[in-house]
Amino acid sequence: MLHGKRGKAALVYAFAVVDTTDFLRANPIGHTQFLIEKAKGGSETAWREIHRRYRTMLALNVRGRMHGVSSADVEELLQRVLAKSWQHIAKFDYKGEGSFRRWLATLVVNECRNEITSRERHGTEARELTEVEDVAGSHSEEASAERRALIEKMAELSDYDRDLLIMRDFEKMSWDAIAEALRCSIEKAKRDYETALQRLSRKMKS
Fold first, then answer.
1. To pair with 59 at 20 to 30 A between CA atoms, which of 1, 105, 144, 157?
2. Where are the domains of the chain?
């Protein structure tokens, strides 16, 4: 993390002179604000890294809202979301990792609503979901059904609870990274995670 005036100055310098590929090679985890600034400048490498970094989160949001959607449809919708984020990224004001995740998730929600409205208007149903894995990677029919139900119930949680579960259980983020994204202590992140799990468990039983 970069702190204080010196840290901010160093980041501004990096924005100005460092190539995205060089930066990512030297910093495997990268820095979201750096990527956003490079993306605003039209860097395709930055956009590819943003897509890679947030694809799991975005895909889970799609699957939670559009039941039975095929993997091909998920990918098509994500491409539309990325295209819209490309169009509007210049207006985005970065206020931390969490703010960018919420902005992307909002774009997904809106795109899903548009897609659902379009399908209803044209009488088109979502195709059967054929490529669903559980957390352990199983392809069994039972595991697929359980995972599908889990993702659908996650969509009923608050944005905060859902993203917290996604970060920890699907994106496999460390508690340090989660706390930084949420701008809270590690202890609070862990408490909130346990609470989110309990809420999801109750929904799974309902």
1. 1
2. 140-206
Q: Name the residue with tokens 């539309």.
A: 80
Task: Give backbone dihedrals phi and psi of 84, rounded to 5 degrees, phi first.
Answer: -70, -40
Task: For residues 66 and 75, give the distance between their C-alpha atoms in angstroms, rounded to a whole number.
Answer: 13
Residue 26: burial class (beta carbons within 10 Å; 0-12, 13-18, 19+): exposed
Q: What is the mean pLDDT of residues 98-103?
A: 89
Q: Round to whole Å and give the CA distance between 11 and 149.
A: 43
The CATH architecture one would assign to domain 140-206 is Orthogonal Bundle (1.10)
- AA letter at 173: M
Query: How far apart, in whole angstroms, are the C-alpha atoms of residue 153 and residue 158?
Result: 11
In angstroms, what is the C-alpha Rg of the chain? 18
Cβ contacts of residue 169 below 8 Å, gap of 6+?
Answer: 135
